[in-house]
Amino acid sequence: MTEILQGDVKVPGIGKTKKKYIFIPAGIAAAYVAWKWFQASREEEPAPGADGFYNSDLSEMGLSTGGGAYNPGGNSGSDETDGTRPDAIDTNAEWTQRATEILSNAGYDPAVVLAALGEFLGRRALDKAEASIARAAVAAVGQPPEGRPWTVIEEAGTGTGTLAAPTGLRVGTVTHFSAGLVWSGVAGAGSYKVYRNGSAIGTATGTSFTVAGLAQNNSYSFNVSAVGTTGKEGPKSATVTAKTDPAPVANRPPTATKPPTASKPKYRTMRISRRDQSLSGLVADYNRKYKTSHTWQQIWDYNLRNRSSATAQTLRARGPHKVFIGSSFWFPI
Question: In 3D, which of 161, 107, 157 has the Cα closest to residue 133?
């Protein structure tokens, strides 16, 4: 080391100077700078709490350290804030984590906090306890950074429940076994309960519901109620009545009608009795039995001329060469 300090060094503007007059002051200055940097880094580091997290003074954030009470003293108490915080948070997930840590240190149940903040970030209506937690989180951490502005939506306290009664309930499409219902939505509702004749029969996530399994030609009364995200049910809507349709009439073939008595000719009836029998075969059987000489064309024209209009229409649709077992034909006497 002493050898390094021996000798001279040429300094621009000064000339030859002993090395010890240059290196020793420079070393002292470098040590001083390093020492000040070390002190500064020690002073900026926050003191950890017992759980390893930074524990802020909750009284400055409007929170009580006594365990779960919301104190508006550190905040204006408004549901909307500008979200300004010195320690920046970039995502709503980070915001939730920070708020949960702070409220847990203040005595809140972390699971309850997480559930309430999830409802808050879902922009759902909150009950009194959830709304208190959401406001405490906003007071402690500021507004969530994504999707601003944020407002604490609290469930209304009207009627017998926490939500208003649905309005505009009306009956839509009705069949002989079902009835459709439609109504206007209620702010803060997570679902709707449907009632038939005073009894709950189902739940709808939207503002319409089809009630099935009804009896034919019967009247029913219906109501709906709104249910909050916490499961609290509001009052029922006004009642509407629907009547199902009668049973549908089955399609039946037209009934043959006989000609008026005054114009009714004398005839005998023969029926197709087997699958392989045709009109010409039926005429041949009739001629053998009654010793006649009719042709199938004569019998065909006779039936079209003398049978009822419905029967004649059926015969024309089938044609003389397409007959069915049980079909009857008239033969003149």
Answer: 107
Q: Which residue shows structure tokens 């010793």?
A: 291
84-138 pLDDT, tens digit each: 545 678 999 999 999 999 999 999 999 889 988 998 999 887 888 888 999 999 9
Tally helices (H) and strands (E) across the chain: 8, 12
Tens of pLDDT, residues 237-272: 999 999 998 877 665 555 555 555 556 678 999 998
